[in-house]
Specification:
This protein is an alpha/beta fold. It has twelve helices and ten strands. The strands form two sheets. An eight-stranded parallel barrel has the order 1-2-3-4-5-6-7-10, surrounded by five helices. A two-stranded antiparallel sheet has the order 8-9. Helix 2 (53-62) links the parallel strand 2 and strand 3. The mean pLDDT is 97.
Length: 302
């Protein structure tokens, strides 16, 4: 069974937010909007946004939402001290995932591991062969990912890994390499795959047996091309609205969903449309887009 969820990032609440320009929705406002739009689950967002411990469990239950997962990035290359600090900071988050998993119906949440990327990767969204990790750096990357995966599994949870623009697992080749060398399965993100030079329909079929989590996004790839001339490519990509409502971008949505359903995938499908709120109208537009996205998906998921 496929269960639909939504995420705080679809309402402008994430690391690139501009609260100096537009007040961001609170945790309770987000839970209400996501429930009201018709989704069954929600991504964790920043730890504490919806509360922690039993408060998190109670808040989710109050809005009849389950936790689908949550982004957790780590410096998988770099200093030992930096990596250890990131792991130590992640342990309370994993404990909350484990607590929620014991109380919610439906599929369990998947801690969604990702790479923190680098300044070089952030300067070149879309990736390139010369930016790939090699030799001992890649071996270190693999070892650290597996170590975090062990922390997740020790709590009775299953990890997933999110390929992502401006990180060290971005392009189809990097994703293939990851799947060859790491035991953790993949969060397949249609939007980030398009930005990384992939073809979601073709690539989904090749990797379907290693996909345990889905992020459904649509993108306007023209924005990525424009960002190449920007002084801050990452902010340009997000603020110029590279992520668009489902059906409005370059994703072949009908074929994508047909292949997902035919593959027998069971688990969370998270609708994401990353937006940076820059003006008051952006708030109401974000809410309307998520209602429209859910309505569009009723053709496949009533």
């Amino acid at each position: 069974m496929i269960t639909l969820a939504n995420a705080p990032v679809s309402y402008g609440v994430f690391g690139l937010s501009r609260p100096d320009m537009v007040p961001l929705p609170s945790g309770h406002e987000l839970l209400w909007m996501i429930h009201d739009a018709g989704y069954a689950g929600v991504d964790l967002g920043a730890h504490g946004l919806f509360g922690t411990g039993q408060e998190l469990v109670d808040n989710l239950a109050a809005y009849e939402l389950s936790l689908c997962g949550g982004w957790m990035d780590f410096p998988f290359v770099g200093s030992d001290a930096g990596f250890k600090h990131a792991v130590d900071a992640a342990l309370p988050v994993l404990d909350d995932f484990a607590l929620v998993a014991t109380s919610q119906p439906g599929p369990a949440p998947l801690p969604t591991l990702a790479d923190s990327g680098s300044a070089l990767r952030r300067a070149h969204p879309g990736g390139a062969p010369e930016l790939e990790l090699r030799g001992q750096e890649w071996e270190l990357f693999v070892d650290r990912v597996e170590r975090v995966g062990q922390e997740v599994r020790s709590r009775g949870l299953e990890p997933t890994f999110h390929h992502h623009v401006c990180t060290h697992v971005e392009t189809p080749h990097e994703i293939e390499r990851f799947l060859d060398d790491v035991s953790i399965d993949l969060t397949f993100d249609s939007g980030h795959l398009l930005l990384g030079g992939g073809e979601p329909v073709e690539d989904y079929g090749r990797w379907a047996t290693r996909i345990n989590h889905l992020h459904l996004k649509d993108v306007d790839r023209r924005i990525l091309v424009e960002a190449e001339k920007s002084e801050d490519p990452v902010r340009h990509v997000w603020e110029k609205k590279v992520f668009v409502a489902l059906g409005a971008g370059d994703l072949d949505l009908k074929r994508m969903l047909a292949d997902i359903i035919a593959s027998g995938f069971a688990g969370w499908l998270v609708v994401e449309q990353d937006v940076v709120l820059l003006s008051e109208p952006d708030i109401s537009q974000a809410v309307a887009d998520q209602v429209a996205n859910r309505q569009l998906l009723r053709t496949w998921f009533p």
